[in-house]
Fold these 2 entries.
Entry 1:
Amino acid sequence: MSIEKAILAGGCFWGVEELIRQLPGVKNTVVGYTGGDVPNATYRNHGTHAEGIAITFDPEVLSYRNLLEYFFQIHDPTTRNRQGNDIGTSYRSAIFFVDEKQKETATTLISELEASGKWPGKFVTEVVPAGDFWDAEEEHQDYLQKHPFGYTCHFERPEWTL
């Protein structure tokens, strides 16, 4: 079995993690902070980092493209620095690619999704190289498993599919 890694940011990491963890082929998820300027980022001090999720998955079960298609179904990639009630750069839409193949897959898919006209506007999702990923504190890991009725603004949008 081969394993790949993906790093995504689509608003509050709790909701993204809870939905993505359920996909067949996902082996592990960790929430944290990435894409910013503060070393050893924490919830109280994460500077310009996005709330992100590191995903390990089996590409023989779940392709990177299918993972991204689902990612674009559970958050709004057309709102800059915002998801639902969450506002600020921490909640931006971003794909942190780990290699050129992931970058190409992401940029091609975004073009196809925009051309479909199914989303409410132009995509603002950043596609940038992966950098440091600082694991969030334990109380943020598996948050909606620990607090089943906790806050989330993420949900599946069946109409946002190709």
Note: The mean pLDDT is 96.
Entry 2:
Amino acid sequence: MTYTPTEQANIDAMYRFMEAEAVQDWDTVYQFIAPDCVNYSPTGVVRGHEEMHRFDAAMFAGLQSWRRTILDIVADGDAVVFRWRAEARLRPSGKQAVWEALSWVRMKDGQIIEGWQYFDSAEVRRQLRPQKEAAL
């Protein structure tokens, strides 16, 4: 596909965003998020940097590792849509989950201003819940 310079810049920004997120380089991550950004996902709505910082701190405190990989990505105007795979490992159990999701983001001046995340949250919970101990 051929993209406008802005569309290609938005695609490139999403790759850099996820690279920074994987190493928890929050200064870089938040350069790609507008201060008044709103994010909608199965886990709830998060508004602005302050709420996003709290959400990220809580999520990453429980993880040994986290990695998202973009599988497909397209851009049209200010919208970027991408399918991604997440791999997460819980602390302290080491329990791992892998799932795919879809994100639709709207960008302005290289920053995410709105985002919608779609994934099967019940499946993620199923993979991460502790295994029941075998009955004796």
Note: The mean pLDDT is 93.
